[in-house]
Amino acid sequence: MKCSFLFPGQGSQSVGMGKDIYDSFEVAKRVFDQANEIIGRDLKEIIFSGPAQELTATQNTQPALFVMEAAITDIFAEKNIYPSYTAGHSLGEYSALYAAGVLSFEDGLKAVSKRGELMAAAGKEVEGTMAAVIGLKREEIAEVLQKIEGVIVPANENSPEQTVISGEVEAVKKACDLMKAAGAKRAIMLPVSGAFHSPLMQKAAEEFSKILESINFSNARCPVLTNVLAKPETEGFVLKTLLVKQLTNPVKWVDIMNNLEKLDYGICIETGPGMVLKGLAKKCCESINVVPSNTATNIYSLLTNS
């Protein structure tokens, strides 16, 4: 089965995610159990039992998503199903690198755990926030942002009509008012702990760069469409560099989908919880149909039809 793997990021998590997969597949059980040993705490309990407030804390969400996505990747690998291309939304890029053989599971988990801690700390040091803007094209959004003083940038270009902006709190509030005045259907402040994918994450990026120095990045066995460039890349050193830049640069998901559409990608599998990327793909490119693998039933269906 020719396929490409798409990995969701923060926002797709939910308490209990992956429990049926853990119970149904021995390889998934090994991944979840190994994760607890690597990070020295009961992450599995937080994922399966919550509470939600604990799971949604950035320092827990990031490793939790990586573990579930790695578990699904390993289920497919055990059946000799490997992706032709991978891409991940923000945090999901780490799972994309794992699936492409760039990072080991242990290194990937350690990296995302540290990333979550640094991003959470940066959010406390410099007050920032994010907002979703719906109904304006990115060119129109850029025009509005130029009128605002302070740090404010596009952070997630999710679909042609949905962009998340990120920056200083007052600048984001002002932007929401101006976006509505410019014709946005909605401009909503998001319940996040920091201005992710903005210059306010610069300190976290510098600290994270030092951590990545000690981690081995192999060349990818299949191309990874990166958040920063939205183009296929296989060079390990380049992929490492782009992970640092990712913290302060926008997620170019629209461009990733447009570029993927031009490739021989096969079936697109949303390799993780929820179906957020399935919805975004439809809004970006009608021809890309994304199949979920968020439950044991969905995975069995994919394995049966492969």
What does the secondary structure layout of this molecule look like, with pairings?
Elements: E1 3-7, H1 19-24, H2 26-39, H3 43-49, H4 52-55, H5 58-78, E2 85-88, H6 92-99, H7 105-125, E3 128-134, H8 138-145, E4 152-159, E5 162-168, H9 169-181, E6 186-189, H10 202-213, E7 224-225, E8 232-233, H11 236-246, H12 253-261, E9 267-270, H13 276-284, E10 290-292, H14 296-305
What does this protein structure show overall?
The protein is α/β, with parallel strands linked by helices. The protein has 2 domains: 3-124 and 199-305, 3-Layer(aba) Sandwich (Malonyl-Coenzyme A Acyl Carrier Protein, domain 2); 127-189, Alpha-Beta Plaits (2-Layer Sandwich), CATH 3.30.70.250. The chain has helices spanning 19-24, 26-39, 43-49, 52-55, 58-78, 92-99, 105-125, 138-145, 169-181, 202-213, 236-246, 253-261, 276-284, 296-305; strands spanning 3-7, 85-88, 128-134, 152-159, 162-168, 186-189, 224-225, 232-233, 267-270, 290-292. The chain has a 6-stranded mixed sheet, sandwiched between helices. α5 packs parallel to α6, α5 (58-78) packs antiparallel against α7 (105-125) and α10 runs antiparallel to α11 (236-246). 47% of the residues are buried.
